[in-house]
Amino acid sequence: MLQKFEIEKFESGEVQSQLRQYWVTVSDQIQLVNRLLFIEWVSSRVIAGWVPAAAEFEWKTQLTYYMWQNMTIAEKLRKRKEELAGNAKIVIPSQKLEELLQNVARADSFHAFMGGWFLEVQRDLVASYEHYLYVCDPIFDAPTIELLEEIIPKKRKQLEWAHKVIHNAVAVPETLSSVERWRSYTKKYLLYIGGLLEKEESLCTQPVAPAEPYGPAPEKRSMPDWLDTNVKLDEFPEEFAGTLKTFMWHYATEIQVIDPMCYVFYGMDDMPFEFFVDFSRHIWDEVRHHLMGVRRLEQMGYDPKKLPLPYDEKPVTELEQYYLHLTMLGETCSFSRKKKSMEAFYEKGDIISGMTAEIDIVDERSHVKFGKKWLEPMFSQRLGDHRTLEELIRGMIEGVMQELPEAERKSISHFAFCGRIEFKNLSYDRL
Ligand SMILES: [Fe+2]
Ligand SMILES: [Fe+2]
Fold first, then answer.
1. Which ligand is in closest contact with the Cα of 291?
2. Which of 44, 236, 269, 341 measures 20 to 30 Å from 76, CA to CA?
3. Which of 193, 222, 254 is the last residue of a domain?
4. From ligand 2's centre to the CA of 325, what distance in Å?
5. Structure confidence by residue, pLDDT tens digits, 90-102
6. Are residues 32 and 113 in the same domain?
7. Angle CA(166)–CA(215)–CA(273) in degrees, nearest 5?
8. Ligand 2 center from residue 144 Cα (angstroms)
9. How many angstroms separate the alpha carbon of residue 382 from the centre of ligand 2?
10. What residues make up the domain containing 332?
């Protein structure tokens, strides 16, 4: 499936002239900044497509952090482009570049993808930023220099992390050959288009993909071998039952929404750039909630790897429905229990758990706001479903509350609905 981007097509005939030796004209910089921000945006989406294939939680959490970092970088570049061009339009720099990014993302394994994407594409991207910095004029381009000096170390750190992950994985001979094969394909492809900046002459013909794709957006999600999945979300592990610790376990379980959210992030064609800026932060926040829970459980003396966590291997296919349920049910309906737990923690002197709940409430408020901002355009643009937000929520309630008599289903308020689906048997009395 070809990923589409809802932006104007634009073919540049002048790419070779974009990076001169001593200065770069404004019109060349507009194209260059547009190209770099396009690559960051695509990179964030492609990485999202591979998060469900990452087996270890540490890989999932780090990759989602990079998705957010890349979108933040892309947003800063977009602002600079707007200053230079007087408009915020993002265009596809060239058909060839778009195809390269799509094709080299279709690797046959997680590690093959990591090798091609980070050690070849991203290494070329770092070199491109450095080249750009090198030809900037210290006075004309001071704002750009400031920006590039902020971006380059971040991208280098991403590379270092990916290098470690790959280095550990290639100790297995089959993984080594699969990574090598994909890296060599990616390297040749980059030579074919003259690098990400397309400034060199093409040095070879277009290479043929050496393997069948496994991802992005694999048909099965990967999870760690050690994970005990034998639990449901509203059945708390016995050792926490009847205590406030249940809440910390619940934060730890938030890792289970990351893969589904990444399927949505990758699959949401035809949504504007700003949606991905918001949604990358949303995903990274959920990872932080997981990390907050894991940290607190460890401080309490538990080994989070020994605790059961609900997890599913199924991919998410109904992307819009997932986003609707996540924001207007899962998140909107979580505030009263979270607020009560926060007050109970503070009252009993457990400051870190109290802060965990309070920070989570802060984040959830913006997630619900994102949902309210994007649900209508998402349903309307992608499904031709022009219902208002109110009507979308009503439809969701009716779907979930099948067992209620029709009249009640139609009249129940969003708030009362939340009360009905709240977790049972929560205890706020004991730490
Ligand atoms: Fe959360
Ligand atoms: Fe959230």
1. 1
2. 269
3. 193
4. 11
5. 999 999 999 999 9
6. yes
7. 100
8. 34
9. 23
10. 238-421
Asked whether 159 and 119 are in contact (CB, 8 A), the reply is yes
Distance from residue 73's CA to the centre of ligand 1 (Å): 24
Q: Which ligand is nearest to the CA of 326?
A: 2
Ligand 1 mean position to 252 CA, how many Å?
10
395 C-alpha to ligand 1 centroid (Å) = 24
Question: 211 C-alpha vs ligand 1 centroid, how far in Å?
Answer: 37
Instruction: Indicate if 263 and 340 belong to the same structural domain.
Output: yes
- The residues near 340 (Cβ < 8 Å, ≥ 6 apart) are 428
Assess whether 266 and 406 both reside in one domain. yes
Whether 334 is in a domain gets the answer yes
Question: Ligand nearest 363 Cα, by number?
Answer: 2
CA 20 → CA 35, 128, 135, distances in Å? 16, 13, 7
Ligand 2 geometric centre to CA of 327 (Å): 7
Residues 260 and 318 in one domain: yes
Co-location of 399 and 340 in the same domain: yes
Query: Separation of 331 CA from ligand 2 center, angstroms?
Result: 6
Evaluate whether 247 touches 342 at the Cβ level (below 8 Å). no
Best CA proximity match to 82, nearest among 274, 276, 271, 269: 274
What CATH number does residue 67 fall under?
1.20.1260.10
Residue range 102-118, pLDDT digits in tens: 999 999 999 999 999 99
| 144 lies in some domain | yes
Task: Report if residue 209 sits inside a domain.
Answer: no
Q: What was the pLDDT predicted at 239?
A: 83
Does 254 lie in the same domain as 311?
Answer: yes
Evaluate whether 96 touches 34 at the Cβ level (below 8 Å). no
Q: Which ligand is nearest to the CA of 360?
A: 1
- What whole-number distance in Å separates Cα of residue 399 and Cα of residue 118? 43
CA of 409 to the centre of ligand 2 (A): 26
Tokens of 295: 């940290």
pTM of model > 0.90: yes
Q: Say if residues 339 and 234 touch (Cβ distance below 8 Å).
A: no
pLDDT digits (tens, 9 = 90+) for 132-158: 999 999 999 999 999 999 999 999 999
The owner of tokens 């934060």 is 251
The CA 301 to ligand 1 mean position distance, Å, reads: 23
Give residue 93 CA to ligand 2 midpoint distance, Å. 34
Q: Which ligand is nearest to the CA of 251?
A: 1
In a domain, 363, yes or no: yes
Residues 13 and 113 in one domain: yes
Q: Measured in angstroms, how far is the CA atom of residue 176 from the centroid of ligand 2?
A: 38
